[in-house]
């Protein structure tokens, strides 16, 4: 499987390589955040996503939707080789309980299906927490559609999103 990378001019906002409007691409263009659009086919794992995007696994960022209460969510951006540390995240937020919504809840909260979720262009601009290990690198994020990603400077994305940067992950457990 191969990927097609396309550098996007801001003058052509909100159009993906498939010719469809994308809230994520529109949001990136509106923010003036430089990015490289990567179109690839379906992937079955994070390692496969890294391979088709031409990056290392830690540079494939997972966007996790976390539920604080019925109508209060946030996005947590984690490197691909790490998982959310619930104790660290609860301590950062000063709460005792967090959960992950089911697929329908995630779609309702973000406007995106699982596997395509990104804070860019989400139906609600929930707060964003970025793991500190993302700083200083180029990362890839989902772009709101299956088989579509964007490569961005992590520091610029963090600034654009107004993200809180903290140590909120642990290494991915080995099986």
From TrEMBL:
Q: Please name one Pfam family that this protein belongs to.
A: tRNA_edit
Residues covered by the YbaK/aminoacyl-tRNA synthetase-associated domain: 41-154
Q: Which domain of life is it from?
A: Bacteria
* Entries under InterPro entries matching the protein: YbaK/aa-tRNA-synt-asso_dom_sf, YbaK/aa-tRNA-synth-assoc-dom
A GO molecular function term, named singly, is: aminoacyl-tRNA deacylase activity
Tell me which PANTHER family the record gives.
CYTOPLASMIC PROTEIN (PTHR30411:SF1)
What is the protein's name according to its record? Answer: YbaK/aminoacyl-tRNA synthetase-associated domain-containing protein
Instruction: List the source organism.
Output: Micromonospora acroterricola
């Amino acid at each position: 499987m191969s990927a097609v990378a396309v550098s996007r001019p801001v003058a052509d906002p909100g159009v993906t390589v498939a010719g469809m409007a994308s809230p994520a691409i529109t949001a990136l263009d509106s923010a003036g955040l430089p990015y490289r659009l990567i179109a690839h086919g379906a992937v079955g794992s994070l390692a496969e996503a890294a391979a088709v995007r031409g990056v290392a696994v830690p540079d494939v960022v997972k966007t996790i939707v976390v539920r604080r209460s019925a109508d209060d969510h946030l996005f947590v951006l984690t490197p691909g080789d790490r998982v959310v540390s619930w104790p660290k995240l609860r301590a950062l937020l000063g709460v005792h309980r967090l959960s992950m919504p089911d697929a329908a809840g995630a779609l309702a909260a973000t406007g995106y299906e699982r596997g395509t979720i990104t804070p860019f262009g989400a139906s609600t601009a929930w707060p964003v927490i970025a793991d500190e290990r993302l700083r200083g690198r180029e990362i890839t994020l989902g772009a709101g559609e299956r088989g579509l990603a964007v490569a961005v400077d992590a520091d610029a994305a963090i600034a654009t999103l107004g993200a809180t940067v903290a140590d909120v992950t642990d290494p991915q457990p080995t099986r």
